[in-house]
Amino acid sequence: RLNADNARFLLLAVLIVLYMLCGAAVFSAIELPTEREAKERWEERLENFTRRHNLSRAELRHFLREYEEASVAGIRVDDIRPRWDFTGAFYFVGTVVSTIGFGMTTPATVGGKIFLIFYGLIGCAGTILFFNLFLERLITVIAYVMKSCHERQLRRKGVLPHNGRRGSGTSEVDSLAGWKPSVYYVMLILCVASLIISCCASAMYTPIEGWSYFDSLYFCFVAFSTIGFGDLVSSQNIRYESQGLYRFGNFVFILMGVCCIYSLFNVISIVIKQSINWILKKLACKCCHRCQRRLFRSRRNVVMPGNVRSRGNISIETDGVNESDTDGRRLSGEMISMRDFLASNKVSLAIMQKQLSETANGYPRQMSSNSKQNGFSGGVGALAIMNNRLAETSVDR
């Protein structure tokens, strides 16, 4: 198990590094020419300005540096609302606790920076907990709706009686108790919900902020995913039509969007985990075949593990062991000691002991094969909450 977790971690790290390298290459190819053209245009304007007003380059650059410092403090050429009035400060703390961090507004005093450290420590932790609880309830609602639709479909086919009671002789009805929603259906629902919220929010931002619809969609993804570049920030002008209503709508859209995108990221991480497990399983199969061929050449009286009966869905997720030399001796008819027998079956004995103990205490945990097939197992933090909710939800409510 430890080796499998390490292998999964290393493979994921390698894939993330490769993904970052590919992304850097693409963005560099797309954005670098535009940056060079903008720099050339700026140098030309700077040269014309210094020549026209008889200024030195050093004096002009010194003035521009001072403006950059003023810009960090919130001073702009155009009229915008004060950064640190109550509404501006509330918008700022919203970007802090949600981990968006646009960067348009930042504390400039030592006291503000010290307070931000402690305020963000508690605020971010509480908001992440809120997102986790929201995710748990969202998955519960999705699972309940999908199971209701599944039951209605079975009643339409005549498998389930209309009174909702299940018969014991039908395999479809028996499997309904352990039915779980597919992770791909959940991902599709969250994708549609996130897209609808983004499109509605963009329809609001486009006329009010004066952005194009594509820029509004871009802002929605950057804000909802808590990336928060800060190149486009909503609610920064000094006046808006229906200002109170717009700021309330902006708050609601950002809150709903962050919750949906956060949930979608966790579901996508499950799919990525399944893909990594599939890759590791394929790599393990190739390595096992090579080891089996070597073992077969070295020991002719041992049955090849490839011909041994399967142990029943042993994968990276399960605590399984490879076919050992003891297994080969036992299946080839050779005698083995009790110590070898216990060593080769220690995992099976441990699982059996756990199941017997749970049965004796009266709370055996029901694990269906559908839950493993759907991929809702394991996870840390929000992943664990969502996986447990998807694994434990059934049609009996």
Automatic annotation (TrEMBL):
Q: Which family does it belong to?
A: Belongs to the two pore domain potassium channel (TC 1.A.1.8) family.
GO cellular component terms? Answer: monoatomic ion channel complex; plasma membrane
Cellular location(s): Cell membrane
Query: Which parts of the chain span the membrane according to its record?
Result: 6-30, 89-110, 116-146, 183-205, 211-233, 245-265
Q: Which residues form the Potassium channel domain?
A: 76-138, 188-273
Sorted alphabetically, the Gene Ontology BP terms of this entry are: stabilization of membrane potential
Which protein, by its recorded name, is this? Answer: KCNKD protein
What Gene3D superfamilies does UniProt report for this protein, alphabetically? Answer: 1.10.287.70
The record's principal subcellular location, in a coarse class, is: membrane
What Pfam families does the annotation carry? Ion_trans_2
